[in-house]
Write a structure and sequence with these properties.
This protein has 8 helices and 4 strands; from the N terminus they run H-H-E-H-H-H-E-H-E-H-E-H. The protein is an alpha+beta fold. The two termini are about 35 Å apart. About 20% of the residues are buried. Keywords: Flavoprotein, FMN, Oxidoreductase.
Length: about 220
């Protein structure tokens, strides 16, 4: 698989089989991802990889919170601006429409949407999950570095793995912390489900803006 195929085949998969991911494969992927760029080589990411019993317990506890309608943990960072302007608002709306349409869920069916969202905290059935933290003293450039690291993890498709990055875990960060016991100076940025795709789960591939909407060539 060349780099172009890895980039274009990567997507947020929301249906995994229970086939285990060998630790040696995860170590190979994460060892390679460690070469992601970061300003002055700070490497500001701190990742926890969870499988087996600890992941099952985390899913159980998160599921219990969902079932009891427990309120979300206070966010430690803002996921989206309070008011998304154009064209970002339209892109987010289009994504939501495509996502729920693929599941046969109508816009007005709030309960079905909630059930679909709850699958986040089961890692969509994935047998492995990565939780990525960053030191709360870090600034915006270091958050950008973390994004490049996570993208590198997701592009290591040669192992046949798929993934789904999930900022949704940030609202159950206390439950995650019960399992992982991270130092107080770390903020949970996101989780990431990792595993082998369940091809029986339907999906619609979200599109991308035309190149001339996001790129300007300045030529001599």
């Amino acid at each position: 698989m060349d780099v172009y195929e890895a980039v274009t085949s990567r997507r947020a998969v929301r249906g995994f089989t229970d086939r285990p991911v060998p630790r040696r494969v995860l170590e190979r992927v994460l060892s390679a991802a460690a070469w992601a760029p970061s300003g002055s080589n700070l490497q500001p990411w701190r990742s926890y990889v969870v499988t087996g019993g600890p992941l099952a317990e985390l899913k159980k506890r998160a599921g219990e919170r969902v079932a009891s309608c427990d309120s979300w943990d206070e966010r430690e960072y803002e996921m989206y601006p309070p008011a998304l302007k154009s064209p970002y608002h339209e892109r987010r709306s289009a994504f939501g429409h495509e996502r729920y349409s693929a599941l046969g869920i109508e816009r007005e069916d709030w309960e079905a949407r909630q059930r679909a969202a709850a699958a986040n905290w089961d890692c969509f059935g994935a047998p492995a999950a990565l939780f990525c933290y960053i030191d709360r003293d870090m600034g915006r450039p270091q958050w950008s570095d973390v994004g490049m690291y996570l993208q590198t993890v997701m592009l290591l498709r040669a192992e046949g793995l798929h993934s789904c990055p999930q900022m949704a875990w940030s609202v159950y960060r206390r439950t995650v912390a019960e399992i992982l016991s991270p130092p107080d100076e770390l903020i949970l940025f996101c989780g990431m489900s990792i595993g082998f795709e369940d091809h029986t789960v339907g999906y619609v591939r979200t599109g991308r803006a035309p190149l001339d909407r996001t790129v300007t060539f300045v030529e001599g």
